[in-house]
């Protein structure tokens, strides 16, 4: 028997100048809709259960502005809609009725199979000069030429002010007004699909932003028992939690069904505390999978978790939560420490060739062994989980933006190190994800920025950021997150591509994406047909793929040349070398064709990656 409660909250335009209003408000005795524009009026909603209040109002069409009036005895409060589709002014202002009917032309779009994804994470406000949905559109052809086939947008839920990473959203159904209107987002997604690009959305289901959050006046959205680093955790298991679950499950459905998103990335799911028999995430995935069947297209739900817990990405039929993929921090940390030598904070657990090799073999570096940073055993072995369920990266918004000065990898290692890191990612068996600008070596930082109206909150954020940096050895004073100049420093500078060094890196990315796509899809790059050979002292790692095609991938993390003994046979063709002058390299030491019957040693350039493919007679 299905006991689920599925109610669409918010203002839904029905056509013919009629709008249905539905609000979960068990903490209010009576709820009325206060229509403020174009003509002011107040209409009381009906509740048969004192939980959901609803009503269909005539003569209310798209563009109408409104708030809810919550009444308890003599106490009256007027608040924006928790499920507002748009906040044209700010998080404290009126909500707006939106018509979600859009002239879609993507009816033939079936999405991108998960194994084929090449993801590109971007922040809307800093990706383009305009900092809007429309601003992204003029750069889509650049992404297509790069080989990217999916973009992942940082959160777009309405937050206070005009500048934010997006994780302080107060209205999860409303697109950020400084980025554009809902129809602008729909236009962007429709255009992306016409160019063969899938679109993913980063969503935050572990907390609400602190400013503009009036949910406590409506219902028990927040847990009284659990906390996150950002405030109260969501109430997914306590009294009244059915309403919270419905709110967020409907939100996930809303973005996929009404905006045609191809998937979601769920932020920090380790901060979602829910010991229920059927956890919220499992229930959400049940509904999304039902929707996937109805829509008949690819959908991918991505988890972000620091637990190395494969249960999140194991099918429900096998006892898991059933999400489709998960970010893999271990890969980033392994490559980063080898290249930079940093050992502060969570980097203290990484830094050896063996650890990176384990990450290639087992997906996670930590699969249950002791973590020095956590001072406990960490992770679990992901038995039977496919390679495409893991997303690797060498940069992302977190790993860059949570540094004191927002340093990109391009400012921490030299150009050869950048190519080595990129090659290590692309020639892994996992799904690659780029962070905006890394493909050409963007040097502008990605800093933490906000635009809160509450000055006490601003001071709390400033203090909190300083505290976060204490476990690292960074010196100096962080940039003020509230200052607009901090935000402006983060804008991408695409003029860098005019420089031959940056252009060479871009060409390396294009070639790496082209080759890695081919070898992933033909089954060559697969952990089941891969072995790793580690040379710890020389800081060299060799990947050997022996599937459909035979590949040898040499990674030299040493700043000096290395001589490696050859133990293989046959004739081999060099298909990629980061030292190639076409990529502004130092020049190649290895000929384009090799016969290992005559070659017993290879001389590897410092900080380099080289890919050999065995010739077939």
List keywords for this structure.
single chain, 617 residues, alpha/beta, Immunoglobulin-like, TIM Barrel, 3 domains, eight-stranded parallel β-barrel, six-stranded antiparallel β-sheet, 30 strands
List the helices and strands and how they pair.
Layout (H helix, E strand, L loop, with lengths): L9 E6 L2 E7 L5 E8 L3 E4 L7 E7 L6 E8 L2 E5 L15 E2 L22 E4 L1 H4 L5 H5 L2 H7 L3 E4 L3 E2 L12 E5 L6 H13 L3 E6 L18 E7 L2 E4 L6 H19 L3 E4 L13 H16 L4 E4 L21 E3 L1 H12 L12 H10 L7 E2 L4 E2 L12 E3 L4 H5 L13 H12 L4 E5 L19 H14 L15 H5 L11 H22 L8 E6 L4 E7 L3 E7 L5 E4 L5 E7 L15 E3 L5 E4 L3 E7 L3
Parallel strand pairs: 9-10, 9-22, 10-13, 13-16, 16-17, 17-18, 18-21, 21-22
Antiparallel strand pairs: 1-2, 2-5, 3-4, 3-6, 6-7, 6-8, 11-12, 14-15, 19-20, 23-24, 24-25, 25-30, 26-29, 27-28, 27-30
Helix pairs in contact: 5-6, 7-8, 7-10, 10-13
């Amino acid at each position: 028997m299905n006991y689920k409660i599925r109610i669409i909250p918010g203002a839904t335009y029905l056509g013919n100048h009629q709008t249905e209003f539905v609000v979960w408000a068990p903490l209010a005795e009576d709820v009325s809709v206060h229509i403020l524009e174009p003509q002011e009026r107040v209409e009381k909603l009906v509740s048969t259960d004192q939980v959901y209040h609803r009503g269909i109002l005539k003569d209310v069409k798209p563009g109408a502005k409104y708030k809810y009036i919550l009444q308890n005895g003599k106490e009256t409060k007027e608040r924006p809609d928790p499920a507002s589709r748009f906040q044209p002014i700010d998080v404290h202002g009126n909500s707006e009725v939106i018509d979600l009917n859009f002239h879609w032309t993507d009816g033939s779009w079936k999405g991108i199979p998960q194994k084929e994804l090449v993801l590109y994470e971007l922040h809307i406000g800093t990706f383009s000069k305009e900092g809007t949905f429309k601003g992204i559109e003029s750069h889509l052809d650049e992404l297509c030429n790069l080989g990217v086939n999916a973009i992942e947008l940082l959160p777009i839920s309405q937050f206070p002010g005009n500048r934010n990473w997006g994780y302080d959203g107060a209205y999860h159904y409303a697109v950020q007004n400084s980025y554009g209107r809902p129809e602008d987002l729909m236009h962007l997604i429709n255009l992306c699909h016409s160019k063969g690009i899938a679109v993913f959305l980063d969503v935050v289901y572990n907390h609400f932003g602190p400013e503009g959050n009036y949910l406590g006046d409506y219902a028990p959205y927040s847990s009284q028992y659990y906390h996150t680093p950002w405030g109260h955790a969501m109430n997914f298991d306590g009294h009244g939690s059915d309403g919270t679950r419905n709110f967020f499950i409907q939100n996930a459905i809303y973005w996929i069904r009404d905006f045609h998103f191809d998937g979601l990335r769920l932020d920090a799911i380790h901060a979602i505390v829910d010991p229920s028999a059927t956890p919220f995430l499992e229930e959400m995935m049940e509904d999304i999978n039902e929707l996937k069947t109805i829509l008949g297209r690819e959908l991918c739900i991505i988890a972000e978790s620091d637990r190395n817990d494969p249960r999140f990405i194991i099918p429900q039929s096998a006892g898991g939560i059933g999400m489709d993929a998960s970010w893999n921090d271990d890969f980033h940390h392994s490559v980063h420490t080898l290249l930079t030598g940093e050992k502060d904070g969570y980097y203290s657990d990484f830094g050896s060739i063996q650890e990176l090799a384990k990450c290639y073999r087992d997906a996670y570096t930590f699969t249950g062994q002791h973590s020095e940073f956590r001072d406990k055993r960490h992770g679990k072995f992901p038995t039977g989980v496919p390679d495409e369920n893991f997303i690797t990266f060498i940069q992302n918004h977190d790993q860059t933006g949570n540094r004191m000065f927002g340093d990109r990898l391009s400012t921490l290692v030299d150009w050869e190190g950048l190519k080595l890191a990129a090659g290590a990612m692309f020639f892994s068996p996992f799904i690659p994800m780029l962070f905006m600008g890394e493909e050409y070596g963007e040097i502008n930082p990605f800093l933490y920025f906000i635009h809160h109206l509450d000055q006490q909150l601003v001071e709390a954020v400033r203090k909190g950021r300083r505290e976060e940096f204490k476990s690292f050895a960074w010196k100096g004073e962080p940039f003020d997150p509230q200052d607009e100049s901090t935000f402006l420093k983060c804008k991408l500078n695409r003029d860098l591509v005019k420089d031959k060094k940056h252009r060479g890196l871009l060409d390396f990315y294009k070639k790496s994406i082209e080759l890695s796509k081919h070898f992933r899809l033909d089954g060559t790059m697969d952990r089941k047909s891969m072995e790793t050979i580690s040379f710890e002292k020389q800081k060299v790692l060799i990947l050997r793929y022996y599937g459909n095609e035979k590949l040898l991938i040499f990674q030299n993390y040493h700043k000096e040349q290395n001589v490696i003994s050859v133990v293989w046979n046959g004739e081999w063709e060099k298909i990629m070398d980061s030292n190639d002058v076409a990529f502004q390299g130092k020049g190649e030491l290895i000929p384009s064709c090799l016969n290992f019957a005559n070659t017993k040693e290879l001389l590897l350039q410092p900080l380099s990656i080289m890919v050999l493919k065995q010739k077939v007679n």
